[in-house]
């Protein structure tokens, strides 16, 4: 069974007292996560279906939603899309140890990261905290930290991407990947280098995560995603961020 964690962006900076909603029809998993996260100072609620999730969110907006994909009726991917359309969220999937296809599908619906089963609760907590830190709102920043990327501008401190003054939604992993590219202008970065820079983990053979994320970023920043000018593919080597600002 695949589980998806949705870490939602709130107006206030996330902290240990943040509300967490666990959506899973397996009572043992709900109890395990509820007890562990409650012991770490989080306010935890549970729901066993999409309908119950919506009702819980209507009562109190959570900082984190832990969402199981194998729910009866409306599945977790549909609920993830529902949340992605309505909230600025970071998404962490928890998948089977070898479920590469599930990871790819999760990334395609907007996931930020994944963790494989069997998982350690401490690692789940660490990844939740990490994504919450990355999506937390920041103070405004100096103009020199605003970087043009294609038709958009990336605000490195506030983690915001904008086009003509309008915010363009970025997941936490999309931001991490774009930041890694921007921080190495006009340099070719291989997929395993980008995986290391964005998730601090070893590259797995046939991992398509970076390719999927690059495709998503191109749809957001390129004037013509089919003819990218800002994020270019270097055949057989990787990807490169190109920006005239950095050219000497």
The tally of strands reads 12
Query: How much β-strand is present in the residues?
Result: 15-25%
- What strand line-up does the widest sheet have? 3-2-4-1-5-6
Determine and state the CATH class of the largest domain.
Alpha Beta
Structural account:
The protein is α/β, with parallel strands linked by helices and 248 residues long. It has 2 domains: 3-135, 3-Layer(aba) Sandwich (Rossmann fold), CATH 3.40.50; 143-246, Arc Repressor Mutant, subunit A, CATH 1.10.10. It has 8 helices and 12 strands. The strands form 3 sheets. Strands 3-2-4-1-5-6 form a 6-stranded mixed β-sheet, with helices on both faces. Strands 7-8-9-10 form a 4-stranded antiparallel β-sheet, with no helix packed on it. Strands 11-12 form a two-stranded antiparallel sheet. A hairpin with a 2-residue loop joins strand 7 (146-149) and strand 8 (152-155). It starts with a strand and ends in a 7-residue tail after the last strand. 35% of the residues are buried.
């Amino acid at each position: 069974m695949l589980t998806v964690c949705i870490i939602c962006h709130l107006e206030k900076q996330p902290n240990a007292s943040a509300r967490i909603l666990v959506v899973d029809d397996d009572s043992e998993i709900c109890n395990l996560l509820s007890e562990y996260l409650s012991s770490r100072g989080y306010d935890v609620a549970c729901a066993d279906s999409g309908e119950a999730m919506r009702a819980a969110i209507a009562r109190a907006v959570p900082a984190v939603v832990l969402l199981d994909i194998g729910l009866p009726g409306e599945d977790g991917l549909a609920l993830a899309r529902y949340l992605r359309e309505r909230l600025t969220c970071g998404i962490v999937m928890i998948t089977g140890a070898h479920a590469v296809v599930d990871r790819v599908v999760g990334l395609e619906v907007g996931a930020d990261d994944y963790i494989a089963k069997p998982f350690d609760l401490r690692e789940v907590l660490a990844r939740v905290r990490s994504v919450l830190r990355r999506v937390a709102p920041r103070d405004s920043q100096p103009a020199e930290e605003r970087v043009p990327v294609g038709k958009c501008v990336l605000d490195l401190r506030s983690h915001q991407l904008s086009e003509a003054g309008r915010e363009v939604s970025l997941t936490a992993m999309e931001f991490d990947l774009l930041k890694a590219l921007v921080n190495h202008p006009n340099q070719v970065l291989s997929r395993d280098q980008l995986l290391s820079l964005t998730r601090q983990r070893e590259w797995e053979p046939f991992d398509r995560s970076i390719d999927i994320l690059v495709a998503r970023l191109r749809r957001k920043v390129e004037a013509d995603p089919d003819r990218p000018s800002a994020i270019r593919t270097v055949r057989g080597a990787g990807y490169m961020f190109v920006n005239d600002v950095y050219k000497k």
